[in-house]
Amino acid sequence: MQNIRNKFKRELQRLFLLTCLILGICLPAKAIVIEMSLLIDGSGSVGLTDFNNQMLSYKTVFSNSFHTNFLNPGDQLYVSAYQFATNVTLEQSTFLIDSDASASAFGDVLGSLIWDAGWTNTGAALIEASNDLMGNGINAERSLIHMVTDGNPCLPDHLGGCPQSVGQLAPFIISNDLQVSAIGVGDGLNPVYIESVTAHLDLIDNYASLQSTLVDVFARDLYSVPSSVPEPSSVLLVLSALGMLTVGRRRIDFKKTGSSPGN
Question: What's the CATH class of domain 33-222?
Answer without folding.
Answer: alpha beta
